[in-house]
Amino acid sequence: xxxxxxxxxxxxxxxxxxxxxxxxxxxxxxxxxxxxxxxxxxxxxxxxxxxxxxxxxxxxxxxxxxxxxxxxxxxxxxxxxxxxxxxxxxxxxxxxxxxxxxxxxxxxxxxxxxxxxxxxxxxxxxxxxxxxxxxxxxxxxxxxxxxxxxxxxxxxxxxxxxxxxxxxxxxxxxxxxxxxxxxxxxxxxxxxxxxxxxxxxxxxxxxxxxxxxxxxxxxxxxxxxxxxxxxxxxxxxxxxxxxxxxxxxxxxxxxxxxxxxxxxxxxxxxxxxxxxxxxxxxxxxxxxxxxxxxxxxxxxxx
Length: 302
Prior knowledge:
302 residues, alpha/beta, 7-stranded mixed sheet, 15 helices, globular
């Protein structure tokens, strides 16, 4: 694991402990055990989302709270639902509804309580329709969707899911499956969130069966892994899903995200806070076009 990832995880831990006003003794115990876990596994391909999963489990146990960001998730789902009709109207009146909806979905990825830095969702949305992704394979995505029999869309954050819904409406695929997390972690979505915003009305909804803020296949349910293998195209939202699937070049995966840290920015070859929509097959087959090299990353970033 990159040293910057470890620093970020410790900042996240302290932020979470402060948020829930954990007693000093319990807080020290969590930090000590969390650091020990990272130190013992950092050279064994431990990912930041796996570490975050453990952190949330420890804090849930101490606080006897199943959802540590329940209020934030509810607030942002409601906030984005209040903008839904206006955003849908902007998309429908645009020259290219598919690309416009995609850009809104990318902008929505800013709603993330994992990174220690604050975010401004209103600023992101106001610029969304005109914001050109730093890497833009959206035309390839459009073409691949037309050929695909089954599409799997991996969701990420609450609030953001409303913009995913609007993007899925423009995709208009009859066999699109939308995946959520298998349990509460950070402000990531669960089946409850998907149903709250109406994703289940326009797509099949499935849980991935695991409570990490990512898609870590060997920890996911058999049902989800079967659907993953069946999918012709996988749309992966967010940096967490990228971290879990970065080494998978066997499947056709389109990564849609806002880059939230210098480690991922350097790996992809874009500036931090950029949005990207890139096809793993295109990048993997032509690594000279970008700095991203899936095999190098999975082997050497320890």
